Amino acid sequence: MDWRERAECLRVDPDLFFPISNSGPTLRQIDEAKAVCRRPVVERCLDWAVRTGQAEGIWGGMTDGERRAAQGRRTLSAQP
């Protein structure tokens, strides 16, 4: 079985994972999406999102900005 078939997000409205901002009432939407992401496949989802360059939405429990920041930290730590 593919990891995507076990993802809890399959049972939730996809719009939840694509908030229109990062402030105000939308913060509750982001928190709700991240709560769904905490289920069994979060690491695989995040890995897939980073590898495929997902620029928008909540993937693997992270916003696009959080994924970019994490990637930046990994890049910096890999430099000599």
Please explain how this structure is put together:
- With 80 residues, this protein is mainly alpha-helical.
- 46% of the residues lie in helices and 0% in strands.
- It contains three helices and no strands.
- The protein has helices spanning 26-37, 42-51, 64-78.
Supply database-style keywords.
single chain; about 80 residues; mainly alpha; 3 helices; about 45% helix
Unreliable segments of 5+ consecutive residues: none
- Number of continuous helical runs: 3
Average pLDDT value?
86
Number of strands: 0
The global form is globular
User: Which percent range describes the beta-strand content?
Assistant: under 5%
* Helical fraction: 40-55%
Order of helices and strands: HHH
Report how far the terminal alpha carbons are from each other.
40 Å
Largest sheet: none
Which structural class fits the helix and strand makeup?
Answer: mainly alpha
Evaluate the radius of gyration: 13 Å
Topology (SSEs and partners):
Layout: H1 26-37, H2 42-51, H3 64-78
In short:
By secondary structure, the chain is an all-alpha fold. It is built from 3 helices and no strands.
